[in-house]
Specification:
The protein is 8% helix and 43% strand. With 131 residues, the protein is mostly beta strands.
Length: 131
């Protein structure tokens, strides 16, 4: 059934850029996506211990994708495997910089579907992998 939104416009569904990146890693139905924007911060204090400056650096974002497995023999992606996003998602430029699999886990349940959770780290300022 096609989605029809009435009333106030809301964001609905899984972004296609995330779905295509997930499909390249494991065959499944994407259930949840969480995107976190982060990095490092250094707070600078004066002689009295009062904060006088804040320096934000080392941008690093995290994407967690949870799927229901639709493959009879799923294979988890390796730690450090490259991930490609086709577009930015909600203002996070996942299609630039470097994305790598940080972790992947599979969950088997007796009376439920098998699930895979993949965590991807995105370094927006890193353009090429180290030699």
């Amino acid at each position: 059934m096609a989605v029809q939104i009435s009333g106030v416009v809301v964001s609905w569904g899984i972004p296609s850029a995330v779905k295509s990146a997930s499909d390249a890693l494991v065959t499944g139905i994407v259930q949840d996506v969480k995107i976190s924007v982060g990095g490092s911060t250094q707070e600078i204090t004066d002689e009295d211990g009062d904060y006088v400056s804040r320096v934000d650096f080392g941008a690093k974002n995290t994407v967690t994708i949870q799927t229901i497995v639709t493959d009879a023999t799923p294979t988890l992606p390796a730690k450090g495997a490259a991930v490609t996003f086709s577009a930015a998602v909600d203002g996070v430029p996942l299609n630039t910089g470097l994305c790598r699999v940080e972790s992947a886990e599979i969950t088997y349940k007796g009376v439920d579907t098998t699930g895979v959770s993949i965590t991807i780290v995105h370094y927006p300022e890193m353009t090429t992998p180290a030699p």
